[in-house]
Design brief:
Number of helices: 1
Structural class: mainly beta
Radius of gyration: 40 Å
CATH architecture of the largest domain: Sandwich
Helix content: under 10%
Shape: elongated
Oligomer: single chain
CATH class of the largest domain: Mainly Beta
CATH topology of the largest domain: Immunoglobulin-like
Strand order of the largest sheet: 23-30-29-25-27
Number of domains: 5
CATH superfamily of the largest domain: Immunoglobulins
Number of strands: 48
Length: 549
């Protein structure tokens, strides 16, 4: 069956198959012909939009049309964010993804921040350092986008202790179970002298602590603790049976901690109470380093004054007691226990970066991380100062330039107005020097080139060479393996001027049947470069082998 054309008012036709037929005849010359051509174009565009572009299966129009340069779509953070030890480090990477499907490592161009610098710090290059146990969040900001990642610092040797029952006035033996991972060492300590550890007070891995509670003398009840690592169990003793002694003595407090350094001028006091106001007593020390200076005897309520004049010479704590007892010695005494802290470890400090700072003539800002390490519970105080008027030092967050623990220091250099290079030596923790060098205003801007920027290797890998060219020759730069660092062996290093160095690509061994290629990046960055120069390394996988039978 044939389809007869259906005429339209403008001379075109629709046949019965829905196809559009256009016939143009010359009516009034060039002007009429131009008008028809314009009407034909408008009509054809409308038909294409209505009919899905002229196809038998029409498609919906795109919701957006993007023209011009590529757009930044998203920002991602990658890298290890879980630590099981303190002063551990991990490098994070920030990746930008664009509308044209490309991506780039912009770690050095991002602004890195941490929600809690007391738990983890982050450098301006994305280097994480664990400081204390807990959870925090690290954030990278690039242009108008922000990405964040949770960070967790946990103790791999966490400990759990079993509870123990309450003891009566007669005391007796007890046992406490220690649950801890294999290979984790621990030490048990009693907080009071009436709890004595009888078995081994230390161990490695799961174990038990055996102890004895002495009989209760002169008080209604008492409590002490046995501590293992950072956990402790409360041990209680009640005066639950038996007759009361004729005279009782009480001291408040029952124990005290004093600093390791000691002092010949600082005094401590203990309040003495008795069951009867006419009860006589004496107070004596069992160690020469614990000196009773006043109140060595009394009647009824009184005060004992003592000093700890000498420093503790040992790296472990030491204890002594002041005993308050009656003149006859027939009634149970009261005991005041003094614990003196051990000699603390010397604090050590690390700077990142540790090799100083080279800044361009226009000036700039640099973050320097300070990681302080000392004994558990020890405060490591440090200062960071500048004697140069053109170089200022601040803390992040701003809080002066004397601090303790782990912080980031902000260095700010003003523009150099003169033609000569100038330098300053900052006084850092441990009296180490941190050198800052600034270019002169007349020095030419540095230009950089890297050759080659791409390299391909077979499955066996092998050596490769990279040449960095600078103009002028005193321009500094540094090299980083980046994402290929696990299979491209090339140490990170700084350089000055034109240099050629060698790197090695390891063999690419993949399972048979999956000869997948791999790709990694290395980059070179100079002091005056706004972005890095990337080198792409591509390596083929080992071809699979098929056996026919």
């Amino acid at each position: 069956m044939s389809a007869s054309p259906r005429p339209t008012t403008d001379g075109s036709e629709f046949n019965q198959t829905g196809r559009f037929v256009m016939t143009i005849t010359d009516q009034t010359g060039a002007a009429k012909s131009a008008l028809l051509r314009r009407e034909f174009a408008v009509g054809l565009l409308g038909l294409l939009l209505a009919c899905g572009g002229g196809n038998d299966n029409p498609v919906a129009p795109a919701s957006t049309v993007t023209t011009g340069p590529r757009q930044l779509l998203s920002l991602e953070i990658s890298g290890a964010t879980t630590f099981q030890a303190l002063v551990a480090q991990a490098k994070l990477a920030a990746t930008a993804r664009y509308s044209d499907g490309s991506s780039a490592d912009i770690s050095d161009q991002s602004i890195w921040e941490t929600s809690d610098a007391a738990i983890v710090t982050v450098s301006d290059a994305g280097l994480l350092t664990s400081v204390s146990y807990g959870d925090a969040e690290v954030t990278a900001r690039f242009q108008a986008l922000t990405a964040s990642a949770p960070v967790s610092v946990t103790n791999a040797c966490s400990v759990a202790l079993s509870e123990v029952p309450t003891f009566n006035r007669h005391g007796g033996p007890g046992t406490m179970q220690v649950q801890i991972a294999e290979g984790c060492e621990w030490v048990a300590r009693a907080s009071v002298d009436w709890i004595t550890i009888t078995g081994s007070y230390s161990g490695s891995g799961p174990g038990a602590v055996a102890f004895v509670v002495s009989s209760l003398n002169g008080v209604t009840s008492r409590a002490g603790r046995v501590t293992v690592v950072d956990q402790s169990v409360l041990i209680q003793q009640e005066n639950s049976d038996g007759s009361e002694p004729a005279f009782r003595y009480f001291v408040t407090p029952e124990s005290r901690n004093v600093p390791y350094i000691g002092s010949a001028f600082r005094s401590y006091t203990v309040t003495v109470n008795t069951s009867r106001p006419d009860t006589q007593w004496t107070a004596t020390s069992n160690q020469p380093w614990l000196v009773v200076t006043a109140g060595a005897s009394g009647v009824g309520e009184g005060v004992v004054t003592y000093r700890v004049p000498d420093p503790n010479p040992s790296s472990v704590d030491r204890t002594a007691t002041i005993t308050v007892a009656g003149l006859s010695g027939l009634n149970p005494p009261a005991m005041h226990t003094v614990r003196q802290d051990p000699v603390p470890q010397a604090c050590s400090y690390q700077l990142s970066p540790a090799n100083g700072w080279s800044v361009v003539a226009n000036g700039g800002t640099r973050f320097v991380a300070v990681v302080a390490t000392g004994a558990q519970g020890q405060t490591c105080t440090w200062s960071f100062s500048s004697s140069a008027s053109w170089l200022s030092v601040e803390l992040a967050p701003l809080a002066g330039i004397v601090s303790s623990g782990n912080k980031e220091v902000i260095l700010t250099a003003t523009a150099n107005p003169g033609p000569a290079v100038r330098s300053a030596s900052l006084v850092a923790p441990d009296d180490t020097e941190f050198e800052v060098r600034q270019d002169g205003a007349s020095e030419a801007a540095c230009s950089y080139a890297v050759f080659p920027t791409t390299a391909s290797f077979g499955p066996a890998g092998g050596p490769g060479q990279l040449t960095v060219t600078t103009n002028p020759q005193d321009c500094s730069w540094y090299f980083e393996p980046s994402s290929a660092e696990d299979w491209v062996t090339a140490s990170s290093h700084d350089g000055v001027g034109t240099t050629t160095f060698t790197y090695t690509v390891k063999p690419h061994n993949v399972p048979a049947g999956a000869p997948a290629p791999r790709q990694g990046t290395m980059y070179v960055k100079g002091d005056s470069l706004s972005s890095s120069i990337y080198v792409t390394i591509t390596q083929d996988g080992l071809a699979s082998t098929t056996t026919s039978r």
